[in-house]
Design goal:
four-stranded mixed beta sheet; 16 helices; globular; mainly alpha
């Protein structure tokens, strides 16, 4: 083991240690506040519902802690344990060209990862979610989804991987810049194509038929200057009891989507307020800002990969004896989650600012009380904890904690009264 290998092990252990420390904080904070509903929610959420949310949070936390430890062990097996070296030798023995071999290595790496994650995914769906009354997915639907995901991975992944490796091998020293431009173009294309061509592969989308609600939504869209391809209901209840609403797509291919479970639990006024929040992200240009940030981060990441791919120690320290463009890409895919972990607090802070801005827009465009009532119902329906640990939440939660978000809406109401 080289000094760089030791450094890699130290960094990955520090990441795991921080994750487990944060999880421990969250665990004890939620458990210690399990017996008392926060004052702000006492009139709307019972003690039994609050305790269910606490127990659900703790159960998910235990699974994520186990999963975190396993992920680190799997990374070490792939790298210093010789897993990638074996996979590389296996496909090289086929006698194919470098790009074809690289495509086979990358695709098989992804498929093996899916298989490794399968037991945890099955447990989450059919044990954890089932225990708390959220799972509505049958085994048949679960494995149909798995097959569909694998088919999409092959149909999209093979040509995309081939193109990426071709650029890496044929565009000179600045291949990383051409690869970034190709990645950015592909990402924007997928954002445009997802609503009409990919999402229907998994869910059924039907136009909103409720005339009263449709009229209310269309009036809101007009006030916000938002043009969409349509307003649709998604059969989310086919898989889960959780509810949500969102808009998706780019340009003229944007859609408004409501989970059918959301329509069952909220009033038309509350649905309008929730949608106004989502439209707030559009009006405040959060989508564009996120695209810019992610694009800059990916540009920096690929520039780093361009430098690392020329360093023999990069391969040797991670268990690879024969450098190659495709193995550089695989190794980078492994270390990116480690690097991005330390960016979590910054990205979470930005996301929370956006949520507050979207809430303000919804309160101004619709009604702050309707949004507050809708959020309380969603917290209750989805069993979201009302008492997260502040540090854990600041690192991981893209949305502000429930009490802070509700207090912000109340302050807005008082300020504008």
């Amino acid at each position: 083991m080289t000094i760089y290998s030791s450094l890699f092990v130290v960094i990955i252990c520090i990441m795991l240690g921080v994750e487990l420390w944060l999880a421990r904080r969250q665990f004890y904070h939620v458990v210690n506040h399990r017996e008392q509903v926060p004052q702000l929610f006492e009139e709307h959420i019972s003690l039994a519902e609050h305790q269910k949310a606490a127990d659900y949070t703790v159960a998910k936390l235990k699974v994520s802690m186990i999963n975190g430890v396993l992920d680190v062990l799997i990374v070490l097996v792939w790298t210093l344990g010789g897993g990638l070296e074996w996979l590389d030798h296996f496909w090289q023995a086929r006698g194919w060209g470098e790009i074809s071999t690289g495509v086979a290595v990358l695709i098989s790496f992804g498929l093996i990862g899916t298989l490794i994650d399968l037991p945890i995914s099955i447990y989450r769906t059919f044990v954890l979610e089932q225990k708390f009354g959220f799972n509505r997915m049958t085994a048949a639907i679960f494995f149909q989804d798995l097959i569909k995901q694998s088919v999409l991975m092959l149909a999209i992944g093979v040509p995309v991987t081939f193109g990426a490796l071709w650029l890496m091998g044929h565009m000179g020293d600045h291949w990383w810049l051409y690869l970034w431009l190709a990645w950015l173009s592909f990402s924007l294309l997928m954002m445009w194509a997802y609503p009409a061509f990919i999402a229907p592969f998994f869910n059924k989308f039907t136009p909103l038929e409720d005339e009263e609600l449709r009229s209310r939504v269309e009036d809101l869209l007009t006030r916000c200057g938002f043009k969409s391809q349509g307003i649709f209901i998604m059969d989310g209840s086919r898989r889960s009891g959780h509810g949500n609403a969102y808009f998706t797509g780019l340009g003229s291919n944007k859609r408004i989507v409501f989970f059918d479970t959301l329509l069952e639990s909220l009033t038309p006024e509350q649905i309008e307020a929730v949608l106004a929040h989502e439209l707030g992200h559009f009006k405040c240009r959060h989508i564009v800002k996120n695209i810019v940030v992610m694009s800059l981060l990916s540009l920096g990441g690929l520039a780093l990969l361009g430098w690392l791919s020329d360093q023999p120690t990069f391969y040797q320290s991670l268990g690879i004896s024969h450098p190659s463009t495709y193995m550089a890409l695989v190794l980078f895919m492994i270390i990116v989650p480690i690097l991005s972990f330390f960016l979590h607090p910054i990205l979470t802070y930005m996301s929370r600012r956006y949520e507050f801005e979207a809430d303000d827009f919804a309160a101004k465009t619709a009604n702050s009380q309707d949004l507050a009532q809708a959020l309380v119902k969603l917290y209750k329906e989805n069993a979201n904890t009302l008492t997260p640990d502040p540090i854990h939440s600041a690192i991981y939660d893209s949305h502000p904690p429930a009490p802070i978000r509700l207090a912000h809406l109340q302050a807005y109401e008082v300020k504008t009264a």
